[in-house]
Amino acid sequence: MEQLVELPAALLKTYESLPGLYLVLSPELVMITASDAYLKATGLTRAELKGKEVVELSFLVSLHQVLETGVPHQLPVLRLALPNPNDQDQSIFSYWETTHTPFFDENGAIQYIIQYSYDVTNFVSAKNKVEQSEKEIGASEKHLGFLLNTMPQQVWTATATGIIDYVNEICCRDFGKTREELRGEGWQSFVHPDDLPICIRAWSYALGQNSEYSVQFRLKMSDGAYKWHLGKAIPLIESGELKMWMGTNTNIDIQKSNEQRKDEFLAIASHELKTPLTSIKAFNQLMKRSKDPEKIQGFVEKSASQIFRLEQLITDLLDVTKINSGNMVFEKDAFQFSEMITTAVQTVQAMSPDHELLLENNIDVSYHGDRLRIEQVLMNFLTNAVKYSPNGGKVIINGKIQSDNIVVSVQDFGIGIAEFEMQRLFERYYRVDNEDLRYEGLGLGLFICSEILKAHHGSFWLESKLEVGSTFYFRLPLKELTAVPQAEKHQLYEDDNLRVFYNKLQNRIDARWTGFHNGESVQHGAMVMMAMLKANGCTKILNDNREVLGTWSDALEWVGKTWFPIAEKAGLRYFAWTNSADILAQFSAQKRADMAIGEVLVQFFSEIQSAEDWINTQ
After folding, report:
1. Span 206-211, mean pLDDT?
2. Sign of the four-CA dihedral 448, 557, 593, 575
3. Of the residues 219, 251, 283, the one at which a domain ends
4. Same domain as 356, residue 313
5. Exposed, middle or buried: residue 391 (CB in 10 Å: 0-12, 13-18, 19+)?
6. Residue 537 region, left (φ>0) first, then alpha (ψ -120 to 50), else beta?
7. Average pLDDT of the segment spanning 127-143
8. Residue 226 counted as domain residue
């Protein structure tokens, strides 16, 4: 789902209270809110509506025209079916006149679009209804090709006998074939051999029964990789006669991967929860049989250790549930950071007699935050250091103040982490070496830590080598980033950790990032870059991240999915990206830039001169 436009609450409340049928849309055609009358007519709640994408083809034609021209557009009178409030199984057909009106921000960009619909059923005669229907059909045919090519799914049509006679441009792009080649080869040649039999059976049944076709299968893409798709088709029947089939193939590969990961997680969770329960049961049986007080005391301590482990597993599960539902609560107050570090180190040391936890440098500073949650982060880093150092040894803890930030590091000398695993380490349900269940845990701890740090505007990063060890860092800012007034509007912007200026000689925007950053500062800086790019009519950005400390990988998904498409509309064509030395940041930057759509050419560099040489030749 696209990120929703943030509009003032008073403005949204105004639209929600209007008596007519009003719908507020973002420039990405995602629903933001609607009037109470609209919700009543459609049978939706405001929560159900918010975040949904517009799918009505007739509306999409009008909305794309508004986005392209910036001019309000009125649709022909449409015959629409609305829920019958007295009978949920039936619909009420009525005629509506609809307009789409754009509203602009201070930079001249469309900020939101208002859809207003007016019921004209009582004013349309039977003759006009027929004539309007004919006009509507003609308009639909005229724009059909445009619509089908703007849809993100593969779209195809087939004759009544099931012969494919049309595919949209998405099909051609995904398969790397022309329309003529696709029609000639047939859809069967792109289906995974293991999935082909069930596809043929489902398609044959749909053809024989004139019923809806639905199947999940893997399709071979132009790069040779198979991706999971949901195939659907419905028959178009007029006067009892089958005219054609309209079908779509929707890429569900990510959903399938998530399902697989959740299945793996459930297997791990079952194993991890069962292990301490089994141990507790065994120790209780031994305590019942023994009469030796010393042995009983030993069994009690071991049983208590397993209870603590079980408690931690359940806590992780509950925390992830709270994160997913947006109910993670933080009780922020001032506390002494040195006391929190000392307590966490002593607690883990007591549970890990085979390891030596050395606190080399502590931080004597007062910090305003949720002490228990931040201690949870440090405890997780410490227990991971112990867990992945199975042969014992030292774990070194250091704290320092750097550029008005608290930075804490935990270094172990254990198994280390491979580079390909580092980029996935902070995802939920993932853990190092999880194939053979060699190390206990649900793979949730680091994901929870990253969410706690985000809530405190902090970040994390790590350094690691296989069979050498790992060092995990986390950062918490002691003060908010403050902006310095611009020397000249759209020519220069500067704050504590970012300098953006218009390079007149090379006609490009130069951005130099330094110090620590979080999601908010990255989004703010990226929008400054885009506004300056647009104001000066540039097409090039030189982005210098060499002096960034730590990582801001959590913000890069927004950069790839949201900022690059918007910046392209503002004129961006070439982007030279000079990376920091942090490996996790490099992985994340390249991964997110791959998500950029359109014609923006992104190149990565390790030093600034090569980046300048490349961008100056564009």
Report:
1. 87
2. negative
3. 251
4. no
5. exposed
6. left
7. 48
8. yes
Q: Which residues make Cβ contacts (< 8 Å) with residue 378, sequence separation at least 6?
A: 340, 341, 344, 408, 410, 474
pTM exceeding 0.70? no
Does residue 2 sit within a domain? no
For residue 543, what are the CA distances in angstroms to 113, 512, 610? 33, 6, 12
The CATH number covering residue 493 comes to 3.40.50.10600
Burial class from Cβ neighbours inside 10 Å (0-12, 13-18, 19+) for residue 596 reads buried
Residues 577 and 467 in one domain: no
Query: Which of 438, 461, 479 is the endpoint of a domain?
Result: 479
Residue 101 exposed, middle or buried by CB count within 10 Å (0-12, 13-18, 19+):
middle
pLDDT value of position 538: 92
Distance separating alpha carbons of residues 353 and 357, to the nearest angstrom: 10
Is residue 512 scored above 90 in pLDDT? yes
Cα atoms found within 13 Å of the Cα of residue 58, Cβ hemisphere only: 18
* Separation of alpha carbons 251 and 229, rounded Å: 4
- Tokens for 296, please give them: 């009983």
* Number of domains observed in the structure of the chain: 5
- pLDDT-derived band at 575 (thresholds 50, 70, 90) equals very high
CATH number at residue 307: 1.10.287.130
Q: CA-CA distance, 511 to 505, in Å (whole number)? A: 15
**For residue 3, what is the DSSP state?**
P
Mean predicted confidence (pLDDT) in 38-60: 84
In a domain, 527, yes or no: yes
- Which residues are within 8 A (CB) of 77 and not within 5 positions of it... i.e. 6 or more apart? 95, 96, 97, 120, 124, 128, 132, 136
* CB-based contacts of 257, cutoff 8 Å, min separation 6: none
The secondary structure of 216-265, three-state, reads EEEEECCCCCEEEEEEEEEEEEECCEEEEEEEEEEECHHHHHHHHHHHHH
Residue with tokens 């995602």, as numbered in its chain:
30
393-440, pLDDT tens digit by residue? 899 999 999 888 999 999 999 988 776 666 555 554 444 444 433 334
Percent of the chain with pLDDT over 90: 15
Is residue 1 a part of any domain in this protein? no
Query: Per the structure block, which two tokens stand in for 59?
Result: 């509306």
Local confidence band at 488 (pLDDT 50, 70, 90 cut-offs): low
Q: What is the distance between the alpha carbons of residues 96 and 20, in angstroms, rounded to a whole number?
A: 12
What tokens appear for 61 in the block?
Answer: 């034609």
Is there a single domain that holds both residue 355 and residue 429?
yes
CATH code of the domain in which 459 resides: 3.30.565.10
Identify the CATH number of the domain in which residue 228 sits: 3.30.450.20
Residue 600 dihedral angles phi and psi, to the nearest 5°: -70, 125
Domain identity same for 229 and 346: no
Residues 374 and 474 in one domain: yes
Instruction: Give the domain range for residue 180.
Output: 154-251
Residues 65 and 140 in one domain: yes
Judge if 190 and 93 occupy the same domain: no
Structure tokens of 356? 């030596």
Contact 585/604 with Cβ under 8 angstroms?
A: no
Indicate the pairing of strand 492-495 with strand 21-25: unpaired
**Which amino acid appears at position 353 of this protein?**
P
